[in-house]
Target: Protein kinase domain-containing protein
Amino acid sequence: MLRSALRTLAPLRHAVSVRLCSGAAQMSAGEKKIADLLRQRFPSAATIVVDDISGGCGSMYQVAVESDEFKGKAKVQQHKMVTETLQKEIADMHGIVINTKSLIRVGFGVSFALRFEQGEVESSSAANKKSMTHHRKKRRHARRSQSAKSVPPLLNDGEVIRKRYTVDFMIGGGGFGQIFKGTDMVTDQHLAIKVEPADKDGRRIKLEFMLLVELRGSSHIPVILASGTIRGCSFIVMTLLGKNLSDLRKEEKSQKFSRSTVYRIGQHLTTALRHVHGSGYVHRDMKPANACIGLPPKENVVYLVDFGMVRQFRDKAGNMRRSRNYAGFRGTVRYAPPAVHQRKEMGPVDDLIGLLYSMIELSDGALPWAAANTTKELEAIKENLRTEDLCRNQPKEMVQFAKSIFALQWDHIPDYKRIHGLFEKCIGDYVGDQPPFDWEVGKGA
Model:
């Protein structure tokens, strides 16, 4: 129904579409509430279309509005007008959060998705919720599979490299390369093979190899096994790990981890960073997706991964490199420390700020700037947010950790032992000794 309505609206000069989630044949109570609100806000609207596209769950809707108020307005202004209306009027009542990842352009208007976090406009059955979650996971898996298939595999299934390692199948891929599951024909050990395309200069993967060789034997760091080139593509072979923390968090019903799990993750990754920094390097891309758990029987060990963005901040003699006047952006916007947004040199402290942001997301389910519509807005929230507000749901030791690292300069070396102790106190506030991680017991907080 909505698709044909949008086709009708597309040629209009000033159409605004807002997408939520269901698709009933006639207007439901939730659809009527949304439509009435928009009708009150935009009394001159020629057309208002609302469609529940969540299979009747009332958790997501698609909305289209044509109004004279949008004449002469830029798309950003149109988006803001509708967004503010829904945020102010509905969000407080029903817990709606704007999902800017789903931003879509439609004609001269805008389209974006809304989803319900805490409440719902109308009730839904548990069966419908379960069905919606199932279909959402299927769509996400399909998108990932399609993305992986869009670039031809750099290695062939069954191929043998270095006369020892068999390529089983591709398990992931991105802009910087592909990762394959493999098997060591001598030890029968499962392993990961990371490959860079031939058109890359190979510096990232070579740098990762050199650092992993230097860190061999260090806890919470994957073990490097081999390296080389095949058909012009550089590759490294390392131990195979399990899922990353970002995916594991999303598998939790609450979309977050228990406090004990978060602080133990903090301890493991602080140890990993101590090893990396001790070698004179900074990671520069700390985030939950770059931390993986081990395979059985090491599911209770968290490993730091993806060292393709590391940079040396100190030479082998212990001398600090000179700080650059301008440093290009490195990392991921959501978890990037303030120094990165300011294009300043990154040091060990910036990895720990990335760790802090990661722990807040894993504990709270989202960061305070998750709903920011632009990078500029995100930067402003980061810059102006008080440490106490960032850690509002955390024990006092987390506030102490945050304040201590925000007070450091880029070339200062953090007190890893003290940080580890602060996390230990956080764990002690909630549970006894050595509790299982959430993914070990199959449930979170």
Remarks:
- The first strand starts at residue 15 and ends at 21.
- The two ends are 40 Å apart (CA to CA).
- The first helix runs from residue 2 to 9.
- Residues 198 and 231 are 8 Å apart (CA to CA).
